[in-house]
Queue: 4 jobs
Job 1
Amino acid sequence: FIGSSIIRDIDQTKLLNTEIKCLSAAKISDLTREVAQLTNNKYQNVVLVGAGNVCSDTKDATIVINSFKNLISAAKLKAASVKVASICPRGDPEIPDYIDNVDTAVQGMCLDLSCTYWDSTDILKLYDGAINEGFYLEDLVHLTYKGQNKVAKKLELRPAQTKIPYNVVTNQQNRHRTS
């Protein structure tokens, strides 16, 4: 499970057979480098999750889309199955306006490359298209524990202990921060 700071509090010790690689402020090039360092065929699945920073290398959507293709192709060399999450929505003004176009292209690419695509907007946005602020910290970039649990569950990460409620994030006591 490789991603940006959007997954920073997911605790791999609370998951079955799952290794978490969280790269804060990760761009596609950072995620691709991390994937390239994985041992070939060691993993059954590789899950890729990024936030808006993945597009901060350039303002050219074509370059971003080609970078995603390289990332997905690299992941396919490392695992039997690859799951790609759409770029998680965020509420800061710095997010490029072409994210929807990139997500649409990545979704088609996943079909072409036999990968699973998950559109994160189905849980992180409300029906009217607004960001579900209940899953975000005040910065509207990083997810709350509840938001991270929702993403982990939707991506079918299996908890080490089956208990209700589903909880795979770090100990939540004394954790009060906005970023």
Job 2
Amino acid sequence: YCSGYLPAFHNTGKFLYRGFGAEHVKHPIFYGKPVENRRPRDSAQNMQVIFDQMLTDLKVKALRSNSIFVTSNRHVAEGYGVPFIIFPTNDTAYAWSTTHHDIVLYSTGSTANMLQDYEAYKNKPEDKEYILQRFQATFDFKTYDLEEAMMKENQEIWFTGHYFAVLASLEPQLRKLLFH
């Protein structure tokens, strides 16, 4: 189920974490999947829709709206709730930005201007291509090299697909099982 991601955990000595609200945590281990059409917590919804369309145009499968956000920094995950270690299943796709560790989309600013330009010119191939190139140059999204992303302490990584979640307080036992 998760064998494709275990080498990254082993090679880096790190896990992926996610904080869950206490009201959602009923078991120390559970099988889950991202919420369909995830609503942003800190970003403007209209900006997320355009952002996701641009990612789709770049052939990225893990979008803001269909993914869970994880990090290799347990303390960051604790800021979002009860920390769990996330084991993505082999059917997942992921994406991360090499230039932004936490992407928040506001309705104003340079990123918003780029997204609005895309929306205005998406039906004009030359303009659309130029804006997508600017977008990729700004965010430098990768859909590979999970180990590199995990080594960046505060990196936000998006996973789409199913996962197993294990309460982070069980980390010592997991480390003993997986790393020794």
Job 3
Amino acid sequence: AMIPARQSGQAQSSNRAPQDPLRGVGLTDVVATAIHSSLNSCIEKELLDTCAILLSLREADATSNWSRINLYFPARVIEAKRGLFPDPPLGTGGQLKGTLLTVSCARALRTASRISLQFNLSPMPAGVLALGLVANVDSGACRALGIANASEQGELIRLIQEDLLQVHLGELNLSDLDIP
């Protein structure tokens, strides 16, 4: 799900959002592969979004148990196609390796970085990236999974912790970590 980038003439200035929302955070091979794959799938001058990274993560992560997540949200994850569940069109939120990110995507990656650092989960595992991608209920990733409200989001967060992370992060409050 890519949204056309607006022509600005120049790359984003360094006094704004960080160019690389994953800077300083180690990534597992699965997460690095998912990020690389989603960046490669992004067409020039399009913004990378949360749904594209979620789809790449699901493809790259053969070792985690996605079965309950896939069953709980039948067909929507499996049939999601890029562009079908875009992030809210709020403009450019930063860059990752030269690719422009939606605002929601940049926030999701920063949220995943905060979770990784706060809970000492480094290098960042797939479950942490997944938590970042669903931290904002309005994101394309949440909508691809059929998440429409905080209650459904809470259930998804529980499943991600149990099945992908295989650890409960206590009183994880994503709204505290999901800051612009």
Job 4
Amino acid sequence: VFNVPINVQAGATPQLYQIDAVATGSVGGQVVVDNAVAPYPRANLLVTTAANLAYEPATLSPGTVTRGRLYSFQMTLRNQGGGTVLLDSASTRLTFTDGPHTYSVAPAQPYAIAGGGATQIMLFRSATVPANFTPGAYAVTLDAHGSENGSTFIQSVPLTGRRRRLWYRPPVTRSSRIR
């Protein structure tokens, strides 16, 4: 059994390729060459375009959050490339920040997103928006980490067109009126 890494050049035409190889070595001091190392019938290798994740507009929910409260987000991603992506729930993060304070949460589970325009709804673990978060509208980003067709995959996916709006709601107090 031989494990041979293959580097596919950028710009290679996405298609099915047949694999063949040449092996050289020595046996008892004699050089030997095998010009047809590939298995019979020859193995095939499919070359695809790279995975390219994109946020599906207006799918991030909830649309408004309050600082100091617990939330669980959901959103939809589309893979506009050809490679299948396996997102790692231990290192992928949905994040927004006001500078000194950050809300960052992992997906509820690992997700697989096939290529060719496939979509996937992602659910995220619950976390509390920091109580000292400055109210305002903030850009949200998905930092996607995982693998694509067995190779490392990392992509920052801006959730364009959607900013989280943080509202401060003071505690409700009751007062008594004296008559």
